[in-house]
Amino acid sequence: MLKTGIIQQSNTANNADNTQRLVNNIREVAAKGAELIVLQELHNSLYFCQTEETDVFDLAESIPGPSTDKFGNLAKELGVVIVTSLFEKRAPGLYHNTAVVLDKDGSIAGKYRKMHIPDDPAYYEKFYFTPGDMGFEPINTSVGRLGVLVCWDQWYPEGARLMAMKGAELLIYPTAIGWESTDTTEEKARQKDAWVVSQRAHAVANGLPVISVNRVGHEPDPSNATGGIQFWGNSFVAGPQGEILIEAPTDMEANLIADIDLKRSEDVRRIWPFFRDRRIDAYSGITKRFLDE
């Protein structure tokens, strides 16, 4: 069993406090035996993409840099693997939304630059992030081969499939998603349910466990153009048949532990041989934007 810790946290404008609370939470789940610990998207700060402000680029950092040093040292001290999510400054004027995996020895096992970049009201990510250029490559670690993606990627089955086809043993999604204040109760339910279903479907289609870690709590819109975002939490771990192994609440912080049996993927793929039956000879159109008549 791979004992996995997920940390669902609310954030404030005090980045030092956000980071210190993350450190405390990592220590808590490590003390409970977690070997793999997954954090939420852009965990050091508020979700700053609600507005487009050039000063926000000052939050970005190099990789390696301060955060990889801090969490790398912590990973080494505790003997755990940590999946982080950082605002990467690659070069002047070139920034990415990047997940970095720190291995048990404190080294950078690998990184993934978010491939799908949204641009919606309160989620103006295209202003800040250049789409990833590293492809869908699993990251080898001491606890397994991790298929790390980020948030908006979770809606795209292609990314999950390519990670699985390259031998990922887990699919992992650091996330920041929530409701806008004007959404109706019914619409809020539809959105959250769709979010869960889409990721459970990745687990089923690929016969792999899925880890999805979201932030929680209300973050105001600095421009006051909207009522801000109520992040809906609901972080969860699903098994290779989409079964929910553990699930966090929608309205509070949570540090949870899930036991993931990586060997079950082999058993599930034997009874549901989706990879065997894929019609790879008939899928050429999938690389097109749209199949016009």
Structural class: alpha+beta
What is the helix tally? Answer: 6
- The helix-strand sequence is EHEHEEEEEEEHEEHEEEEEEHH
The end-to-end distance, rounded to whole angstroms, is 50 Å
State the low-pLDDT regions, or none: none
Approximate helicity band: 10-25%
Mean pLDDT, rounded to whole units? Answer: 97
The largest β sheet comes out as:
6 strands, mixed
Your description of this structure?
- This protein is of the alpha+beta class and 293 residues long.
- 25% of the residues lie in helices and 29% in strands.
- It contains six helices and 17 strands.
- It has a six-stranded mixed sheet with strand order 5-4-3-2-1-17. Strands 8-9-10-12-15-16 form a six-stranded mixed sheet, with helices on one face.
- Strand 1 (2-8), helix 1 (15-31) and strand 2 (36-38) form a beta-alpha-beta unit.
- Helix 3 runs parallel beside helix 4 (185-206).
- The longest helix is centred in the C-terminal third of the chain and has 22 residues, at 185-206.
- The protein is globular.
- The model has no long low-confidence stretch (mean pLDDT 97).
Could you list some keywords that capture this structure?
293 residues; alpha+beta; 6-stranded mixed β-sheet; 25% helix; single chain; globular
Secondary-structure map:
Elements: E1 2-8, H1 15-31, E2 36-38, H2 66-78, E3 81-91, E4 94-102, E5 108-113, E6 119-120, E7 123-124, E8 139-141, E9 144-148, H3 157-165, E10 170-175, E11 178-180, H4 185-206, E12 210-214, E13 216-219, E14 229-232, E15 236-238, E16 244-247, E17 254-260, H5 264-271, H6 274-277
Parallel strand pairs: 1-2, 2-3, 9-10, 10-12
Antiparallel strand pairs: 1-17, 3-4, 4-5, 6-7, 8-9, 11-14, 12-15, 13-14, 15-16
Helix pairs in contact: 3-4
